[in-house]
Each structure stands twice: as C-alpha cells, then as structure tokens.
Amino acid sequence: MLAFTPITEADIQMLASLYQNCNYKISDYSLGIKWMWKDLLAPEYTVAKGCLVVRSKIRGRYAFDFPLPLEDDADIQGALLEMADFCSEKFLPFEMNAVLCDRVPDVFSLFPNVETRRYRNLSDYLYLASDFRDFTGKRFAGQRNHIRKFHTNYPQAVFRRFDENDAEKLHIFREKFESSFEKTAYGAKNELNRAFKMLKYVGSPFFRCGGFELDGEIISFCLAEKCGDTLIDHIEKALPDYEGIYPAMVQEFAKTFTDDVLYINREDDAGDRGLRTSKTQYHPTEILEKIQIRLKNELYYIEKIPKLRSLRLTMDAIKEEDIPDYNRLCLDDERNRFWGYDYREDCENPDEDYFYLDQKKDFGASTAMNFAIRLNGKFIGEILLYHFDFRGGAEIGIRIFAEYEGEGYATEAFTVVCNYALYQIGMYEIRAKCMKENLPSKKMLSAIMRLDGEDDTYFYFRKNV
C-alpha cells in the first residue's frame, strides 16, 4: 500500500534533484509549481516501483501526476497499478492530472474504462531556446523591433543574474510592480502573490534568476527551473513603463540561462486573452496538452442498485426503514471481527443514520454497492461489492445476523451477486477472503470460488468469468 508524505520545505532539495532530470517538458512536473501552489495543491509524494508518484488536490479532489521514473529499470506500469490499488483500498476515485499525450496509451493498455479530457486553458507553450536567443527570421520581426527600441531608449540597462544580495532591490521592484498592476481578477492577483513569494529562493541552486537593472534599480525579474532538456519559466515580471522590456528580457534570459537546454516552457495562459495573444506571438514550437484522466469502474455505469432474486432471498438497496436492523448488524462486534473492519476507526460514536448514509455515499461515488439481503421481505444481512480495482475486478463480502446462519443463505446470496457481477455488469474477476479461524466462511467460499492463496491471517478466493 502506498504511503504519501506531504511536501515540506525539507523536501525541496530532494524534489529539485529529481525534477531536474525530468524530460516530460510540462510545467506541472517541476519543483516551482509544487512549491508556488503548495497551500492550494497540498502535494504529497511517494516512490513506487522506482517512480516518483505525486498527488495534489485539484478542485478539492486528489489527482495523481503521471509516474516519473527515477532509474533506468523503473516500472511505470507497475507504479500505475499500485496507484490503482491505493485508490481501490481507500475507496477513492482514481484521477490523474497533466498526463502527457504520449503517455496516455500506457493508461489505456492497463485499464478498460478510461475517460480523458483536454482543457485548452491549461496547455503549456513550448519554444525552442535557440529561437529566443536569436529571434532570427521574418516571424520574429516584431520582437526584434521592440528589443531595438528598448536598448535605444535605455542603453544603460544591463541584464544580469540575481542572487541573495539582491533581496532589498527585489523588494523595491515588487512594490513598484504591484502598484502598477492593473488586473483585478482573483486568479491574476493570486498568481502575482504566489510568484513574489518565490523571491526568497533567489540565489538558491534550485532556480535560475535574473533580470534588467537600470541606474541601480531592478526593472524586470525572471525565475526559471531546469527540468531535463527544458527550462520551465515560472515567473516573468517587468515594470510596464519601459517599452519593449518583455521581449528584451525574454531574449537576454535565454542567452544567459539556456546553454544546457533545448526548450523553454512558458507555462499556460489560464484563459487570459492577453497572455494567450502574447504567448502565441512568440511562435511556440508546440502547445503541450495536458490530459486529465479519470478511471471508471463498472459501478460508474449503474444508476441504481438492482433487485436480485434467488430461490429464497431478495437482494436490493438498503432503505431508510432498514436503519434499525442495519445498525444492529453494523454495530455487532462479532460480525465486525470476521468482517475485518472496526467502524470505530472512522467514527467512534456514529449517528443513527451514519451507516446508512455512508453506504449511499459509497455507491454515489462508484466505490461500493451494498445490497440488503431479505428473507420474506425481512432484512437479515448485507452483501456488497467493493474494492473495485479499475481492471474489471472487485471484492465481495457478506455478513448475516447470527440467528440466520447455518441455513445456506450466505451461499445463496453469494452465488447470485457473483453471477450478477460477472455476467450482467461485465466484470472479469471477483475476489473474497476470510479469516483462517472462520471455518464456516471457508467452507462456503470453497463451494463457490477457487482458493487462491493464504497468509497468516486470511484465506483468499477468486472467481473468474
């Protein structure tokens, strides 16, 4: 089971060293993005199968980055499978953010139900570093004209690297820039505030920083990060009073910091019309699409829990009128011991409708399907499909009131729900387990499924199409 660690300042050096060899080219795979937006994204990381796996909160829900291999024999597909198992075990949706187009087939090769989305506002702009260093050719005539005007009007302006000794000058630059900032949208102001918080890292080995200085004052500022063969340009700010300063800054920054890279990524435009116009006018070599992925399981396509029947039993949705009986079942410590789950781990003093609402929430999130087991209309237990693995498999579990055990009801319900999963909703495999001391369950499962192994605690069973 994956175990994630929140990214803190203590992790900066480690993450910087990992991302500096990343050739994904997309800005999301960089220390700068994770750290600038840390309080919003709440990024966490782990290592799986030799890959860095990061998950962040996107619109309030966790989504994974695509695994980043850290060594030559890293197993990307193995990491994807561990990510799926983590979501299955935790009853979480499996979503991925900012997946490279050429990596999407890796996901399709493993999982049968994949939903993808492209969102233009999040696409990054990738440029050839050589284009920015030289601005040669007719297509860059506009940039060259602006650069000439800047150098003609401000011949004393000098572009140079910045370090920690420039802190006071950068603070003054920030105040001047903010006083002239005209955009009122929350997103623009939020980005500005986060960008200037990165000033504390000027002079650190993680970022490349520089800008123009004129008459002892800083009038522009850039901060970028090398990731593989790409320089991720996180921040570009300049005082607007100096005509032509932006293209001049872009060129000098490229001349100063791109000897060891092939590309410059100037990140997305966030749907800002002015930014999109500007970034397009610099003639990107590629618009890097970031694919958003959601893996679906079989429950995603089921609108309501069906009614299933056997010779003596009916299996259908748990109803509000079942709450008293359902609570008695869920609060039965003996049932829970063999169930392998203690409700106190999640809620010490559950409300009257806690268990009822919890199972409804799981079905609504497509993570579990709980059936009431009824004998002549009376609630006698529950059976559920859960731990959907996004590959056509799920686990099945059952618990019945003690007074109804030994009559074959569990075998009857198990058979019906297994057949429903395998032959009606198109699953490939159903799994089950029982504690080794639970011999009646072992006998029942052995009659329906195939023994598939054991450990110190459980016997494991499997049934395939």
How far is the first residue's CA from the last residue's CA? 27 Å
CATH class of the largest domain: Alpha Beta
Structural class: alpha+beta
CATH superfamily of the largest domain: Gcn5-related N-acetyltransferase (GNAT)
CATH architectural arrangement of the largest domain: 3-Layer(aba) Sandwich
Give the overall shape, derived from the CA principal axes.
elongated
The CATH topology of the largest domain corresponds to: Aminopeptidase
**Biggest pleated-sheet summary:** 8 strands, mixed
Count of helical stretches: 16
Give the total of beta strands: 24
Mean pLDDT, all residues: 92
- What share of residues are in beta strands? 25-35%
Number of domains: 3
Gyration radius from CA atoms, angstroms: 29 Å
Summarize the structure.
With 465 residues, the protein is an alpha+beta fold.
Labels describing this entry:
465 residues, Aminopeptidase, 3 domains, 16 helices
Describe this structure in words.
This protein has 465 residues and is an alpha+beta fold. The chain folds into three domains: 5-120, Aminopeptidase; 124-267, 3-Layer(aba) Sandwich (Aminopeptidase); 298-464, Gcn5-related N-acetyltransferase (GNAT) (Aminopeptidase). It is 33% helix and 28% strand. The protein contains 16 helices and 24 strands. It has helices at 12-19, 31-36, 38-41, 76-89, 104-108, 129-134, 141-153, 167-180, 186-197, 245-257, 273-281, 323-330, 333-339, 354-364, 409-423, 439-448, and strands at residues 5-6, 44-48, 51-58, 61-64, 68-69, 94-99, 114-118, 124-128, 158-161, 208-214, 217-218, 220-227, 230-238, 263-265, 286-288, 291-295, 308-309, 313-317, 368-375, 378-386, 393-400, 429-435, 450-454, 458-464. Strands 8, 9, 10, 11, 12, 13, 14 and 15 form an eight-stranded mixed β-sheet that branches. An eight-stranded mixed β-sheet has the order 17-18-19-20-21-22-24-23, sandwiched between helices. Strands 1, 2, 3, 4 and 5 form a five-stranded antiparallel β-sheet that branches. The model has no long low-confidence stretch (mean pLDDT 92).
